[in-house]
Each structure stands twice: as structure tokens, then as C-alpha cells.
Amino acid sequence: MSNFLTDNPITRFVKDVVGPAAIMAAGMIGAGAVSTRLMAGCWFRFDLLWVALYVIPMVIIANDSASRIGNITGRGMMDMIKTELHPLLAWFMFVPTFLLNIVVNMGQMSVMVAGSYGMIGKEMPEGGAATPGVIITTIALTVITLLIVLFGGFKRLVKVMTGLLMLILVCFIVVAFKGLSQWSTWIGLIGGLVPKIPADVPIVGSENVRGAFTQLMGIAGQALPAGVFLSFGYFTSNANFTAADVKATFRKNILNFGVIWGLFSVVVVVAGATALHDFYTGANGGLHYSQIEKVFDAGYVIAPALPAALKSVAPPIFSLGLLVAGFTTLVSVAMLMVYFCLDIVGRDWKYTDENKAYRWLLALWIVIPALLSPFWQLPALIKNILAMAGNLVLTPIAMFILIFFMNKTKYVKEHTASITRNIILTITLVFALFVTVYQGIRMFG
User: What is the domain range of residue 185?
Assistant: First the structure.
């Protein structure tokens, strides 16, 4: 009996999940991912599902390539770019990533605050005003986050993030369950596999529109951020993975980024399409799906999946999941930026009990964006969509860097990229470049 308790399909699955890939996947299944996919389903139904699905192989291979470089060389990516390519390229990647991730973490804390309000059945102040309640909630959440992150070390943090990853996934499977039980949903899913850019959606009661291409950039930017691809090797090296762990790491990457993160992408789009787009038609003067952009309103996404007597608790349940999602991304982004900051100046970047510089910087990367967040007055979900779209701009350069290192035996020895890996990495580079250039033409052409 005791053997079964410690060695059964569930415990083996959990053991396979736990690790650096779980931290990164938990960060990617964060408020940005929820925002981009939920609003894509809400505003455009299944028309942008293809983006969420087609990027999955790109995410797996790009992250696995970054981990291989880190595991085999034992070096940080910023140092490698600076010494093996050019110092200016390293700083060119570092500075905008630094600034962008301040905005990203401001968005995560905004979502955490909005989630806290939603859990007690309250809406955020109109216009995103920095009221005393918002400021006090922000400070409280910041303190709680610091206590969780700074006490217990890297291994305990891995376990916490893994647990939260599974909690998020379960929450959104429940959300999408009713939608997936209807045959019409499956027809929509099949149609959503065909690449297309739908027409913009006019916002009822406003002259503005929901931009389909902006939403596409948000989904792609959240899935293919340069910062994640360049930083994943730090996480695996910090866990003391080496060249001997290449195959085991690849399996974990497939499980976390392919199975778990891929399933998440589907269920959130389904939830938005079936429980928001299909239900909020503006009938009898009610809320129209094009008007949904607040956490509290989006919380009703799970109402159709609940018994009638429990529909009133839909926003609190959703808000809890979103709060956790915001936390996981906030922490993972803070960690990767500490790696970058220390490595770019040649300092020890490993997260250990002895590395005080890492702990101080990690605290600053949580505190500063968090305390700035109440003063960026946009709806929390919209903040995350804009931040994720901005993430995509540096991705083509990041992919070029990964391709360069993965094809040099000097760095990865016998683990140089195969033809298949190179094809997927190149497709990722071209896709990110196309989306970025196309958006630039739309804006300035």
C-alpha cells in the first residue's frame, strides 16, 4: 500500500511536471495568457484559436533549445551574447526587455488586485482610479508575494509554482467543461484551426473597435516572448541540469509546454467563446461581449458551467484563478529579469541561499512594478494584452541567437540542432518577424 501511495500514475505525473519547465509554464499560464485567450474567445469566438495552437511546437522547441544551451555550457545567455557575439547586441536585447518587463509586471499586479476585488464580489473603481482601497490591496499583495518568494529557496519555489500551475489548469478546465459538451463547440473548434484574421469588432456604445490583429499579436507575443526564450537556460542551469539531462528535460518541456500549456490554451478560448461571446449579446440592454474588458465582468465566464443557485459565485471563483495566474507570471518574470541583470554585469546569477544580490534584486523586481501598478490607469486585462503584444518585437532577434548557438558544436557539442529543430526554429523566427512587420505596416503604412 505504501509503495502505491508513493509510486502511482498521479505521483509519477507530478514528478514529471515538477522542475524549471513548470516555473516557466506557470509563468506563461499567467494573467497575460488568460487575458489574450479569454478575450480572443469573447470578442472573436474561435477565429483566433489557430494562433494559440500553432505556436505550441514553436514554444516547446525554442524553450528546449534555450535549456540545452544553458545545460551544456553552464553559462548565462546574456554573457554568451556579450562575449561570443557582441556587447552591443547584449545591451540592445537587455534594455528594452528590462523596460518592457516592468510594464508586464505592472499588469500582473493590476490583475492580482482586480482578482482580489472580484473574490469579495466588488468591481474595481471606475477609470482605474488609484483609490486608498486599491493602494492598500496592492501593498498587501506585494508583501504576501515577497514572503512566499524570498523564504524557502529555489527548490521550494519550484514546488509552489508547480502546484499553482496545476490549480490554474483545473480552474479553467471547469470553466470550459460545459462548452466542450456541446457539439456546436467542436464545429467551431475545427473552423478555428484555419488561419485567418477576422474583422475588427465594433464596441457597442462606442466608436472604438476590438482589433483582431492586435489580439493576434497579444496571443503570439505572450507565447513567444524573447525574454522567456533567452532566460530558460538560466532556470535549468540553476536546477543543476547538465548535458546528461537533455533527454529528460525535453520530456518535461513537452509535458509542461505542450500538454499542460496547450490544453490551457484551448480551454480558455473555449470558455471565452461559449460563456461570454455566446451569452452576452446585449439583449434587453444587457452587457454586450464587445464591452467586456474588466476582470469582474469576465468572471461571469464560468456562470454557465455552474448550477443556477451558484452562478453568483462565478466572478469570485474566476478571480481566484486570475489572481494565481497573475502571481505566477509576476514571479517568473521577476526571476528571469534578475538572471539578466546579474549576468549582463558579470555577477553570480544563481538563485542560492548565499546569493544576497539575487534576493535583493528579486525583491525589487516584485516591489517596484507592483507599487507603480495603481497609477497606470487602464483595465487590467487590456494592460496585459498590450504588454504581451510588445513582447513579440524582440523575438526574431532572440530566435536568430538561439539558432546560432544551437548549430555550433563549440557550445552544444554533439547536441547541435537537427533538421527538424532548425525548421521549427526558423518558422518561429519568420512568423514573429512577419507579425511584427505586418503590424508596423498597418500602423505607419
Answer: 19-444
